[in-house]
């Protein structure tokens, strides 16, 4: 069967009549927007994230390809890794972005000349420096322990010093919204001071992420009347408002938006650029990256990998599930016209439509899958109903085919009567032996299989029973099918089904395998973890050996 990639499917995307346009309120729609990425600085402040200097360089290059305008690379006064990053970046030409060093205003006890933080910022040799300072009287008195007047001095002379050394300065007004709500006049005085000292941008920060969109709108509108330099917004996500707050700020005329890829950042994260950018481009018609928007999913995945985080499938726009349809009613409609259940075309952000196979699907979804293998059947064909029944029965037993397209393809071929098994299992045995209380257990597996008329019997050891079984099976099969040498086990997941049965529970094993050009998932279910593993392993091998074009 020739399988067509689901990526090649292009559902119709048409509307019978034009929708009414609800206008956005943007004051100055013509003003060019600046996308300021702080994945490498504020994103690195996320729990569980740690970038090496080399990681940071790779991410910076990727962000440059994406076309962001500014990349905040780190705080050079904070650690040697960040100093190293700025050193390396001096030797790497970027096409679109400028790299920015970040740090605070001088310490109250230091002069600007002696302040180590300002010295390190200058030593990073970036054209632009982003300096953050205190806005909120609470922070001035309780965190810094200085007078309100002294804080204004810190802001003014730190910025003026960096300007005198030929740097452009962007000023991050930390806790601007909380500060404004407590003492509006003082909050405005801090940013007036920054502008007077030469700051070219003033970025209003919702540092604690506690502001609501209507507060952001009202306060930004006041600041727009007071401050002549272009403004920015830097929002945190503690109330899950960071994206909304950033967009509302832009609607009031703010031109720089700060955020991180995938929204990573301290506590609940920063404003997610992977949502902000497509919302700007596709919903507000404000160009941010232009034709590079379609690189967004790729960049999102790259940062997840480098940060060593679990991908969030359900992330808007760029998650694997963002355009995945599971409900039968949805699938039925979306296959006729994608607009029925998709708010935008997934390809605009580099994503794709997916139709999932599950017991929530009806025959339309199944037919779509079958058609992807080049088979045309009518909706009421007996085979379709038979396969649907098998699928639902399997899902009822605990199988899940959403992440196991390899097992699904085998199931479908078996139902259609076109599958020729590559081997027959005659038996396996797995032994785990522990001889001493403090000794490591030994795992050994033997496998007997038949290929054509030839019986093969092999044994292998492994790091654990699964590994031993995998080794023994491959050892038995590789002389018949040398192409199996290129198959790698990429992921192995076990999920306990109905945990209330304790160690008697059924488990579902999901295996992801891959070779140099393809990746596939397979599944097994049993009360016995080794049997569940066997099913998933055997499917993985069978899938690899399918005759494909
Ligand atoms: C909202 C934000 O995300 S701001 C960025 C936050 N990010 C980070 O803090 C990550 C990097 N930070 C670090 O590595 C360290 O905190 C350093 C190197 C900057 C400072 O380390 P230390 O000198 O040991 O100070 P420590 O971390 O204990 O305390 C922070 C210091 O900064 C001072 N400080 C904080 N904000 C400001 C400011 N806006 N202006 C001047 N000084 C400030 C505090 O008063 C305190 O100084 P003190 O010890 O003299 O009272
Ligand atoms: C500057 C910054 O990161 C903040 O205020 O959140």
From TrEMBL:
Task: Describe the reaction catalysed, as an equation.
Answer: pyruvate + acetyl-CoA + H2O = (3R)-citramalate + CoA + H(+)
Q: Which residues form the Pyruvate carboxyltransferase domain?
A: 33-297
User: Which pathway, metabolic or otherwise, does it act in?
Assistant: Amino-acid biosynthesis; L-isoleucine biosynthesis; 2-oxobutanoate from pyruvate: step 1/3
> Which InterPro entries does the protein's record reference?
2-isopropylmalate_synth_dimer (IPR013709), AIPM/Hcit_synth_CS (IPR002034), Aldolase_TIM (IPR013785), Citramal_synthase (IPR005675), LeuA/HCS_post-cat (IPR054691), LeuA_allosteric_dom_sf (IPR036230), PYR_CT (IPR000891)
Stated EC number for the protein is: 2.3.3.21
So what family is this one in?
Belongs to the alpha-IPM synthase/homocitrate synthase family.
Q: In its UniProt entry, what is this protein called?
A: Citramalate synthase
